Amino acid sequence: MLLQVLGTAAGGGIPQWNCACPGCSGARAHPERRRRHASLAVATGEGRWYLVNATPDIGDQIETHPALQPGPGSRRTPIAGVVLTDAELDHTLGLARLREADGVDILATAPVRRALTDRLRLDQVLGSYTALTWRELPCHGAEPLHGGARGPTDAGVRITAVPVSGKRPRYAADAPEDDAWVVALRLYEPATGRSAVYAPAVAVWSDALHRAAAEADCVIVDGTFWDDEEPRRTGISSRTATGMGHLPIDGPGGTAGLLATLSARCYYTHLNNTNPLVDPTAAQHKRLARLGIEVADDEMVIEL
Ligand code: MLT
Ligand code: MN
Ligand code: ZN
């Protein structure tokens, strides 16, 4: 299985356009600290790729990676479609950037699809430019990630959604409750038996998520906040990290202690600009290293 990390920042990115906090200022002073919005590309095994989430940085994220660039010939893209983990704006605004496509294959859970069609009116708006094909991202069973022609049934990567929270985006706060508003993805490659879990937003470390993570070769997890008080301490929110739908890394019930029990390669992604980990010299990196955990880099290639 081949995964290309495309970005590792939470909503706003690093630096965020209207922010001069130490993390954002540090990234302006040290460009190597910049991080694009969290996203991943998954190779289908046919020279094509699915993007996990469509961020406001999607154009640059494609251009930075030769494997994702178009060609040969004009208007031939290796991007086969987009898988959505949730309906948050930092994970969906990039869909509008794909309107030049002949068509866009979108895998999403039912509540995420409804939010994008009923609230953001993406079907209506983008439908005038390109053909959106929606596929159900299943919580039971596994959907093949196909790019173009269908190969043998055990070829390529299969995807399953693992519900991680019922947190609705602010623009759909009154939409019906559903436990599949936010999901982790389990990516499984039958030919090699390898699997990965991608969970950029985790509100609850459920038994189902733990089972998927315990079986996986690689786990990429929500690293939005270092500790539960970070959003209040830094003044960006009146809520705690947990209250914002993001389990913190450190502290009781934090994800670092959970990841430390896994045999998988473990990485953090979706870092908020207030997270001390955005400074590569921060002592917190050493704490993670002792637990065998790393922060993912924007350009990281993961081969399983
Ligand atoms: C989140 O990850 O909690 C959301 O993306 C927050 C936001 O609306 O930017
Ligand atoms: Mn987010
Ligand atoms: Zn900032």
Please, could you describe this protein's structure?
This protein is an alpha/beta fold. It has a single domain (2-303), classed as Ribonuclease Z/Hydroxyacylglutathione hydrolase-like (Metallo-beta-lactamase, Chain A), CATH 3.60.15.10. The protein contains nine helices and 14 strands. It has helices at 22-29, 58-63, 89-92, 110-119, 122-126, 207-215, 230-233, 255-259, 284-290; strands at residues 2-7, 39-43, 49-52, 79-83, 103-108, 131-136, 143-145, 157-165, 182-189, 194-199, 218-222, 265-269, 293-295, 301-303. The strands form two sheets. Strands 6-5-4-3-2-1-14 form a seven-stranded mixed sheet. Strand 12, helix 9 (284-290) and strand 13 form a beta-alpha-beta unit. The longest helix is centred in the middle third of the chain and has 10 residues, at 110-119. Zinc ion (ZN) binds next to helix 1.
Proportion in helices: 10-25%
Hetero compounds: D-malate, manganese (II) ion, zinc ion
Q: By helix and strand content, what is the structural category? A: alpha/beta
The main sheet orders its strands as 6-5-4-3-2-1-14
CATH architecture: 4-Layer Sandwich
> What would CATH call the class?
Alpha Beta
Q: What count of helical segments does DSSP give?
A: 9
Mean pLDDT value: 96
Anisotropy-based shape: globular
CATH superfamily: Ribonuclease Z/Hydroxyacylglutathione hydrolase-like
Question: What is the helix/strand order?
Answer: EHEEHEHEHHEEEEEHEHHEHEE
Poorly predicted sequence stretches spanning 5 or more consecutive residues: none
Measured between the Cα atoms of the first and last residue, the distance is: 5 Å
Q: For the CA atoms, what is the radius of gyration? A: 18 Å
In CATH terms, what is the fold-level topology? Metallo-beta-lactamase, Chain A
